[in-house]
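Data availability (excerpt). The following record was deposited with the supplementary files.
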Amino acid sequence: MRIALDAMGGDFAPGPNIVGAFEAVERNSNLEILLVGDRARLEEEIAKVGSLPDNVRIVESDGVVGMEEKPTSALREKPNCSIARCWQLMAAGEADAVVSAGNTGAVVAAGLRTRLFLKGVKRPGIAVRMPTVKGSCVIIDVGANPAARAEHLAQYGVMGAVFARELL
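Predicted structure:
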């Protein structure tokens, strides 16, 4: 599996994202991680923790959407920012998944622009796998839509059931 990681997303990026990527590929040799972000900053941080593993590579992007920025405005002004670039990689078939700890609204908006979501799904939900005493469960919509309507909740139910069936 190839994951496009928004290496610039998050409060303390890119350091923790790089460390997490390195740990992930060390634990799972089938993973390939694309660190998407400012090449110079990424290389500087990588030098602090070691060298780039064979299954991690850098993909250059231009700019970052800050947590305080309005998602659609920021994406219009920064069309090749790290979040948008991750989704572009997914749309081109160069990544199987997008991971970001950045601006949630921008992650969702950039994803919507690629039109990769299931036909008929009006609003994507963000799903997380949570550990329980009996294994794992799926929680879906954990923040993408603060004002979901009944039809959205029904769609989340279908998407969550498919997610659980396929990945748990």
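Summary of structural features: Residues 150-167 form the longest helix (18 residues).
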